[in-house]
């Protein structure tokens, strides 16, 4: 019987690749997505449509509203930056988002009897978010084993897998294609049209397009 792993899944390029890697590692993935008040709701439609298709045994969508706090272009009326964001942490950073996401994933993992969590954070071709760094993941993993019944009683030794963390976007795409990921079924844009067409100029779109270009490939999704 295969072991279970909880996979944080947004419907995007990185999380779809991460799910395929969990399957390749021999795990049965349990996908978890979040409706957190983000302006780019289309990603949830993509996630709902494709989680099981990508190999998830179950798909859980957790609903809460970070618009109550705001503080990000993704959870307030602040404009999404286009055509470059500079060297500072951009306004698309959502305060404590990965900490919140991982906490839900950790709770579900403990209920499922799973010791493994996959998250598609990246520290090379990324927007500079502080909760995508290796030292953050290492600290969270230590906390997970201190703060859970399974960790304290020794029934689980939680491991947070970050297989993409030191890969370029081109390397991620190449690896995903080798595992059979269909990137036409993914969505990355922070500011899509009402019908889900990607803008092509936000930071997420620019990193995605750069990755496909560096891999010598064409992105299969539509852009404005």
Task: Give a brief outline of the structure.
The chain is an alpha/beta fold and 224 residues long.
Key terms:
5 strands, 5-stranded parallel beta sheet, about 220 residues, Rossmann fold, single chain
How big is the Rg? 17 Å
C-alpha end-to-end distance: 45 Å
Helicity range of the residues? 25-40%
Structural class: alpha/beta
For the largest beta-sheet, the strand count, sense and barrel status come to: 5 strands, parallel
Structure notes:
The protein has 224 residues and is of the alpha/beta class. The protein has a single domain, classed as 3-Layer(aba) Sandwich (Rossmann fold), CATH 3.40.50.620. Helix content is 34%, strand content 12%. It contains seven helices and five strands. Strands 3-2-1-4-5 form a five-stranded parallel sheet, sandwiched between helices. It is globular and about 50 Å long.
What does the secondary structure layout of this molecule look like, with pairings?
Blueprint: E1 3-8, H1 13-24, E2 27-35, H2 42-50, E3 58-63, H3 97-112, E4 116-118, H4 134-146, H5 149-153, E5 159-161, H6 169-178, H7 203-214
Helix pairs in contact: 1-6, 6-7
């Amino acid at each position: 019987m295969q072991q279970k792993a909880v996979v944080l899944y947004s419907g995007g390029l990185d999380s779809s690749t991460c799910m395929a890697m969990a399957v390749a590692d021999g795990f049965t993935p349990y996908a978890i997505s979040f409706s957190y008040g983000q302006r780019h709701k289309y990603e949830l439609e993509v996630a709902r449509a494709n989680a099981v298709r990508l190999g998830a045994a179950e798909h859980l969508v957790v609903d809460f509203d970070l618009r109550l706090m705001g503080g990000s272009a993704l959870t307030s009326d602040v404009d999404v930056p286009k055509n470059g964001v500079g060297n500072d942490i951009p306004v698309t950073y959502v305060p404590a988002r990965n900490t919140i996401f991982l906490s839900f994933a950790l709770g579900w993992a403990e209920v499922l009897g799973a010791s493994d969590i996959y998250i598609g954070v990246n520290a090379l071709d990324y927007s500079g978010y502080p909760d995508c760094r290796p030292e953050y993941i290492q600290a969270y993993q230590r906390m997970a084993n201190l703060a859970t019944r399974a960790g304290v009683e020794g029934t689980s030794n939680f491991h947070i897998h970050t297989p993409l963390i030191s890969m370029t976007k081109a390397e991620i795409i190449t690896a995903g294609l080798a595992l059979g990921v269909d990137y036409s079924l993914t969505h990355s844009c922070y500011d899509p049209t009402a019908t889900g067409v990607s803008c092509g100029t936000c930071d997420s779109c620019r990193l995605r397009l750069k990755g496909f270009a560096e891999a010598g490939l064409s992105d299969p999704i539509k852009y404005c």
